[in-house]
Amino acid sequence: MNKQGLHFTDASPNAQFSSQSRREFLRTALAVSVFSATCGTNTLLGTVIPDDFKESGAKLTGIYRLQFSEYPELRTVNGSIRLQVPGTPISMGRVVVTRLSQAEFSSLSENCTHEFCPVEPFSNGRFNCLCHGSVFDGRGRVLNGPATRPLPSYTTTYKAGEDFVQIDIPGLVVSSVLGDQQGGFSLLQNYPNPASGQTTIEYNIEKQSFVTISLLSILGKEISELVKKDHEPGVHRITTDVSNLSRGVYLYRMETSTGYTQTRKLTVI
Ligand code: FES
Asked: Among 37, 57, 107, 258, which residue's Cβ finds the most Cβ atoms within 10 Å?
């Protein structure tokens, strides 16, 4: 954890763990990585597979299985959803899963490779980035700049007749242990970020608790209270308008009556 209470994830942890101890560590850790949470009208169902992670070079790859029949959007070609897979390295943002054809899915990082704004939802075969106009196709390839690199993609496997899509996510396993989840509570990165108008903050609540989320200056002075109420377990989100704030970096902090606290940065442009 750094000075401001922000957590960062090392997606290349070989320097920290021997191969043997790492395997034991991961097996223990993965026992808590199976999850189910409500997200709007959907049920977020997925599993990090305990005995089926890969080691290649300096990277550890977690296997995430998405039960796509739970997502009506993915029943049709060009359907697309965006998921916060627990344990995905923070720098990669959420995972955008898109059905390219009956038999093919893509999984991409939502972060534009120009200056890392989250791309807009998949529409007309494209992902648009509203920050500076970059456009990507369903496989993440650049159609229009200023971005010059494709959206980072994850190996995605689907076998006809099966009810899941398998997504290989480098860093998933280790970050699910060392990342910012604490007992099923988490505060996610706002999107879009940087923001100039409305921005949304998503957070997960493990069990019923009183939650406050405050917007702070970079020096930690409270600017406003975004959330202050009891919450049921599940995934929640708050949308706020930052257009009246001066350009710059701010913080938002979540605290719960169960003792969870987390702080993240928010940039206004
Ligand atoms: S951040 Fe996407 S185009 Fe600049």
From this structure: 107
pTM of the model: 0.49
Pick the residue whose CA is nearest to atom 3 on ligand 1.
Answer: 132
Q: What does the pLDDT look like over 234-258, one tens digit per residue?
A: 888 899 999 999 988 888 888 888 8
Cα–Cα distance between 61 and 52 in angstroms, integer? 9
The counts of H helices and E strands in the chain are 2, 19
Atom of ligand 1 nearest to the CA of 119: 2
Domain boundaries, the chain: 13-111+152-178, 186-268
CATH superfamily label, 186-268: Macroglobulin (MG2) domain (2.60.40.1930)
Residue 143 Cα, ligand 1 centroid: separation in angstroms? 13
CB 167 within 8 A of CB 107: yes
Ligand 1 center–CA 194 separation, angstroms: 10
